[in-house]
Amino acid sequence: MKVLNHRVAVVTGAASGIGLALARRLAVEGMHIVLADVEPDALEEATEQVRADGAEAIGIRTDVRDLGAVQELAARTIEEFGAVHLVCNNAGVETGGSFLEIPDGAWRWVMDVNFYGVLNGCRVFLPFLAEQPEAHIVNTASVAAFTSGTATMTPYCVSKSAILSLSESLAIELHSSNSPVGLSLLAPGPVNTRMPDAERNLPEGLEPARDPQRVAMMAELRAKAQHAGLDPSEVAGMTVNAIRDNQFYVLPHPEMALAGVRRRLQWMETGVLPAPRKAGT
Ligand SMILES: NC(=O)c1ccc[n+]([C@@H]2O[C@H](COP(=O)([O-])OP(=O)(O)OC[C@H]3O[C@@H](n4cnc5c(N)ncnc54)[C@H](O)[C@@H]3O)[C@@H](O)[C@H]2O)c1
């Protein structure tokens, strides 16, 4: 998608972190922005920031788990701006623990937001995007998509692998059918955002995992994101380049993604189980 100026972007999970940085960068590129998120106050503040960057922007409270809410998001986008050219399915959450201690509700929350949120975005917006001469989808996964076995983060790894597989399959189908819609998969390693506090949005009745291994892991992840994580604006810049170049993989930490792929390949070739990974390595 070469032209961004005066076109319309929808970004989910836009009230914080990578989503907010994407919305702000796309605003600077001249796009009209629809910000979608579950946190109403943060969403309002983010929408104001994007307007201050010079864009026409609206914020629509949307829970991406809910297909009807995503359909409503699309309807309101068309009502407000008349079209949609770019959808960033970016909202994501994380909770976990040791395997048998992860409640069913925690699995469902992670899969519903991370996987079904992306699936809902693709299914609902694709018909609108396909009406345009050029359009694009960005699905946010993680290096966790390539690296199973991250201690206490099994649901997150599973959900991100599912996004990877969905995105690869859809990109191939779109390309082979000469669709005007391109697709990119954003798979970062540590980025300095509020992701280590994702459990702030846990559904009622679920508690953050508290076993010592998990608590230590989250503390380490938080420190790594803050001190060694990329700034979300850098990730947004790489993503915009990928949208313009119609590049599928957006790998802000290519060495981590490739190490994950090599680890699997070695496992397949040698049969030797790899050691558990620490998050952010
Ligand atoms: N930060 C990292 O190190 C990192 C690394 C790899 C991948 N990612 C991915 O990047 C994406 C963005 O996360 P981030 O790091 O900016 O974290 P963040 O917590 O700063 O932002 C995530 C946003 O998603 C929103 N959200 C949560 N549940 C939602 C729902 N049901 N519907 C709509 N919005 C919802 C949150 O309110 C929040 O504003 C996620 O998919 C995450 O998995 C992050």
TrEMBL record:
InterPro entries: KR_dom (IPR057326), NAD(P)-bd_dom_sf (IPR036291), Sc_DH/Rdtase_CS (IPR020904), SDR_fam (IPR002347). Keywords: Oxidoreductase, Plasmid. SMART domains: PKS_KR. Residues 7-194 form the Ketoreductase domain. It comes from the Bacteria. The keyword Oxidoreductase applies. One of its GO terms (molecular function) is oxidoreductase activity. Belongs to the short-chain dehydrogenases/reductases (SDR) family. This is SDR family NAD(P)-dependent oxidoreductase.
